[in-house]
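3.2 Worked example (two chains)
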Amino acid sequence: MKIDKELHEVLYFRMERTMRKLKEYTRQVLKENKYGITIDQWIILKRISEDENGLSQTEVSNSTFKDPAAITRIIDHLCKKQLVERHPVENDRRAHNLVLTRLGKNLVVEMTPIIQAIRAKGIEDLKVEEVEALKINLDKIYHSLDK
């Protein structure tokens, strides 16, 4: 496969361009619906909602591929908005588990159909087989970079 191509022909450029477009589209939809949270805040809220016992900041950082400093800032904002609380971990005064407040849980329930619609919009012109092939190929690219 020829690798030396014009920038707009490079696969990674197209992947980055697509992700930026998705983030911008999502930002616009969230703004129009007046949720007052960013896509990164949504990702963190959604991830925390998936574990009823709460998650450490490290677990959230690792599972969302965000750096710890960014996670701290996002969590601080979510706590100020009363969507997330830090609960102390028994037997470890330094550690905290992140849990959703009732307001946070309600927001996740309310926003989930909108986020699902955004994701569906991005792939509406693809056949099921194409989506599955894309997932497989993106995973192959991801794992090849671990070698």
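3.2.1 Second chain
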Amino acid sequence: MFELKRHPDGQEPHHVIIGGGFSGLYLAWRLRQAGVWVRLYEAGQFGGMIQTRQTVFGPTETAANGFLANPSLVELAKDLEIPILKANDESKARFIHSSRGFQRWPLSILQSVLMALRILWSLVSGRMPPRADESVRDWGERVLGHAATERLLRPATRGIYVLPAEELSAQLVLGRFFAKRKRRAKLKGRIKGTVSFPRGMGQLIGALVERLNEDPGTQLIQKRVTPADLEEFHKNPAVRKIWIALSSPAAAALTANLEPKLAQALAAVPRVPVVTATAFFTRDARDRDGFGYLNHPELGGEVLGVLFNDRIFKGRSEAHRSETYIMKGENLAQAPDAKIRELIEETRARDTGRALPALHVEIQRWPAGLPRYDFALAQVQPEFQKDWGKIRLVGNYVAGIGLTRITEWVDDQFEGKNR
């Protein structure tokens, strides 16, 4: 399956990966494609935040319900021999919910024209890239205009990054769109947009773990790596690189003895708690078609947005309505299940005008779920790009949020320099 080079003295040079979430697993896959021997350590469950739970009502996801197709992920699925599930046609509509109701495009014709003219002027004048001291909201006001910022940008970015636009660093969130980057292969054929797998995102993790387990050049080891273990890896001449694919708090604790300055920077990465819950309801002819909706900040409340799972992908629930609620975690990460269930039912009644009890609710709490893409992260992130000898960092606080960003970042590391 992969190139297998053996060293004459039996001490094959290899890379160590600490952390078996998607970042670590995909990195292992790419290293093996490059002919590098790999030892990957995972203390808990492979896949990290990405798991699919099966219930009698249908599957639920502990993290993203899909990913934006890119060539690397499509090729990975092909190599793993798992079919990609395209989104249903009825999921094309995406809504912003505000005091004006549910709108697919919340701008008037005049506002849309003015936004287009502002973008054109910003491109021509070179004003488009974000400035270091700008928030996403500031950038939007300067480049897109007030209406587009208020009605489009604020709800869209809050739904992804779980922070208000005025707290998000524009350079972190938007800078990559304007940076000079390698030309990437483009997707060919009909696999585009948001996609998943027939048995959920966990199918990708399961297939990846199974294939790596079968590979004689990869060792998957169920063990918690300690700071003492890290020092041993660092001393071992056969270990060429140590990739730490853990959350920033876990990486800080692991590197505290060996690289205290790096650990200090990692400990300074701010985190934001997230709670998601998938709820099943009795089907109703008035259920809205579409991908889902984002709540405008003006509405207040804890719910950032809702995904219509049974409308997005086939097989997510044949007999019931399946919806995933993405919520701010500050007030809910420690809340009892009953409170979260009540919040979901109240939100649904407000947003749809129909009060229905949930048949079943699966709740996932991530107390330190995502990095805060704010100015504090922007200040410390350059530390992670420095040369720390054998140690390299990989994760959403370095690469960005989402499988697509992770794969692109990992792919960028492979120019023959990591062997």
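3.3 Remarks
The domain at 271-371 is CATH 3.90.660.20 (Polyamine Oxidase; Chain A, domain 2).
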